[in-house]
Design brief:
The chain is built from eight helices and twelve strands. The protein is α/β, with parallel strands linked by helices. The strands form two sheets. Strands 1-3-4-5-7-6-9-10-11-12 form a ten-stranded mixed β-sheet, with helices on both faces. A two-stranded antiparallel sheet has the order 2-8. The N terminus is likely disordered.
Amino acid sequence: MPEPPRSGRSRRRIWIGATVALALLLGGGGFAAWKLDWFSGNGEAVSFGKNPQPPAAAGKTDPSAPATAAKPTGDPDVLMPTGPKAAFKQTAKLDDGTIVAKTRIAGAKSGFEGDVWVWAPKEYDDPKYAKSGFPVLIALPGGNGFPDNYWADRSLGLQKAITDGAKAGTSLPFIVIMPVLNPDAKYYYDGSDIPGQAKMGTWMAEDVPAFAKANFRTYKSRDGWAFMGSSSGAFVGMKTVLQHPDKFKAVIASGGEIVPDSPLWKGHQAEMDANNPEKLAQKLIDSKGPEVYINFQIGTKESGKERMTKFQQQYGKGPVKMTIRDIQNGEHNGWHYVRGMKEGSLEWVSKVLKGPKPEAG
């Protein structure tokens, strides 16, 4: 799906979406998809965290109860699901049996209601990890990011890359949270609280993490929280990490922008500056931390590296740690960004975050 024109810059060329995914399936991949049982169970209810729960009083169940009755041991940073539980429905199934599912949440802080897709790795249901937290990777799409999030489409291979990396020891087994990026397809909102508009900055920084904590075993500290995104989603992920370094530690930003450019900022210069990564990075440098980690990815066949290099030269110092990964023959699309993640960016982010610890024995 072509992205709307974006000031002649890289965001206009992100084109992966539901239309492309469907074309892939129908154009020769459809039969294989059915053969592999990709769609079996789609639309059915899904639950995550299949660890034993205590008997409910009088044979009744509490829909607001946490997903697991296990209690954390050892690491005080582990946060068990806080509830209330969301109602998930399957949207895709991977070859290893793991599920991508969707739910809809009403943001308590932002007031925005939107769809969120989730995926949990196979390790999440392994009894050895029943008392352990898992790191969270919030994955953001490019374009308007509404009404879908293309990272939930298994054809891009994000979840498989994490699965394969976890088996090889080059990636943590991340829980992937995939929210809608914008409240509509009319404008783009820079993942920010633009005056008079839906509070998408609060949605991303407050409501989406709260949803993850309500439904999954996570971590209290920022050491278990990161973003990844492409194009406009890369900007939002990077901006949110710089804006909230107390909550998030790292971001993989692929083919993204550096400064906010929503047309809705007109007349709100001060608020726009408060969401500008250049100013946020300088503020973090001046305050001497906490440290954040930014890994840019850029394809050698796309433009934009000069912006990343300039940003790194000016702000990649002190607590702002930056790297730039070139994706050889890479273009401005999600398949190539996943390839870059497999070639090193997943290992990079896994080294700066904490992962689950199995119980001894």
